[in-house]
Structure formats: structure tokens, C-alpha cells
Amino acid sequence: MNSVIDVIRETIYFLSLPKMNLIDVLEIVIIAFVLYHIIMWVRKTRAWTLIKGIALLVLCYVMAYFLNMNAILWIFNKTFAIGITALAVVFQPELRKALEELGRKNFVASLIPFDDSKDKVVRFSDRSINEIVKATVELAKVKTGALIILEKDISLAEYERTGINIDSAISSQLLINIFEHNTPLHDGAVIVRNDRIVSATCYLPLSDNLGLSKELGTRHRAGVGISEVSDSTTIIVSEETGKISIAIRGKLLRNVDGELLKKKLGELQGKNNDGKAKKRFFLRRGTKGQS
Questions:
Q1: Helix or strand or coil: residue 145?
Q2: What's the rounded Cα separation, in Å, for the pair 189 and 225?
Q3: Interval 216-273: pLDDT, tens
Q4: Do the Cβ atoms of 261 and 143 come closer than 8 Å?
Q5: Neighbours of 60 (CB within 10 A)
């Protein structure tokens, strides 16, 4: 009888939860949060298929372990170190993209919605915005292909070096002349930083997004590709249709007119949203004070 009671006590002790404090609960919440976002990120990338293949290999290892298949276990053990290196190579694009997304997030700004430092710097003047819009519309009218990259916070210096240095003030005439057919600078992309055209004929990474329409050519895939690896805004003019598109954070907005283009560039400018947010904030405070 005593032995049965001891077994029951041991079972209850084994199944009982350990003593937990606030720090332990916080650790569990943080780990669960991180794991959830990792799983959601993996499911949105091609890494999901690779994860399923790895899971199959793990299942084979477990079966070999319980069935004492020594030869298979020896192969697994010898190739484990190589497999870790292979995973780092295979997942390199996904890991780089995940780290870039993590670096873009401004946690302080998300916690403090009325932070004065947010969008404080005006990146482009109104004149530069107007000149870019004017040039884009004119290029679209005559169906001249164009690719204009507007740099934001992430530097595009590595892509700037692939082109020809210009370092000129922004003007619609210069942009139109750059993309004119049969001119030395028409092929490739133009990079704009603040109120300067810094480089032309730049080579950009192509997007491997399978969700893009098959009718889109290399110019559109390059525009989406640079927006995937940076926080830049890309203006694309189709040479075939003359239609204007905008690529932001891997998303392509097609069939854009001059008015919408100016609105999007105004958001990139860095002063409109900040002013509106502060205005709404003070209006709400004023309303509460009156009530």
C-alpha cells in the first residue's frame, strides 16, 4: 500500500507545475511572442517548404534512433555540422530580409505615438517633388521607360557605386534627358537622395516574388527588388504602356496618375504626416478640455 502511495505522490510531483514568479511568466510571454512571429514569417516565405523538408529529416532521425539503425545515425551525426552551415547558406536571403525588417522597426516610435523626433527631417523640398512628378508624367506621355529611386533612411550607396556619379540638382529637364532613348545614361536606374540626383545607370537587384504579374518586365522587377531590400520609394514608367507604378516595401502600386504620385511623394517628404498627427493630437486634447 505504501508503495502505491509513493507512486501516486511521485506522479503528482512530476505533473505539478514548478514555482513561478513574475520574471518566469515574462520569459514565457517573450518566447511565445518571438516563436509566433518566427512561424508567421517563415510561412510567408519560401523557407516554409524547406522547413517541411527539415522536419521530414528529423522524423527519419527519430525513427532510426528508436530502431537502432546505426548506419543512418552515423551518417546523420557526421553531416550535422555541415548541415548547419548549409542551412545558413540556403536561408541567407530570408535571414537577411528578416534582420532588415527588424532593423527598420522603430520600437520607441511605436510605443510613443507622438514622439517629436518621428519624421522630423524633411527629405525633399516641394520643388524637388514637383520636378520629379513633372518629369514622370512627361516620360509616361511619350512611353519612355524610367526607373527613379528615392532614398529614405537605408543607404543605397552600394547600388549608387554601380552607376555613374552625377550629383546634380533635381530638374525635370535633366530627368527626361537621362531616360531619353539612345542616350548614354538611359539604361538603368536613377538614385535620388534629398534634393540631389546622385547617380544614374545604376543596377538593382531583381525581385524573385512569384506573386508579381508575368507581364511585368525587368524594370518593374528591379523596382520591386530594391524596395524589398530597402525602405526607398521607386517610381517606374513602363516603356510598353506608358503607365506609372510605385514600389514601396515590396508592394507594387500600378496605374498611378500624377496627382496620386505627388501625394505619395508628399508622404515620403516627411513633414505632412507629422503635422497632421500633431494637429489631431492637439484637437483631441482641446476637445477633452472643453468637455
A1: coil
A2: 12
A3: 888 899 999 998 888 889 999 998 888 999 998 888 888 888 888 888 888 877 654 4
A4: no
A5: 13
CB 224 within 8 A of CB 95: no
* DSSP 8-state class, residue 144: -
Output phi, psi for 253, to 5 deg: -105, 115
Rg of the chain on CA atoms, in Å: 27
Predicted TM-score (pTM) of the model is: 0.59
Question: Would you tell me the crossing angle of helices 47-66 and 22-43 to the nearest 10 degrees?
Answer: 110
Give the separation between CA 1 and CA 3, rounded to whole angstroms.
Answer: 5
Q: Which long-range contacts (CB under 8 A, 24 or more apart) does 215-220 make?
A: 216/252, 219/145, 219/147, 220/245, 220/247, 220/252
Residues 6+ apart with CB under 8 A from 151: 191, 192, 193, 230, 232
- pLDDT tens column, 47-91: 666 777 778 888 888 888 888 888 888 888 878 777 777 777 766
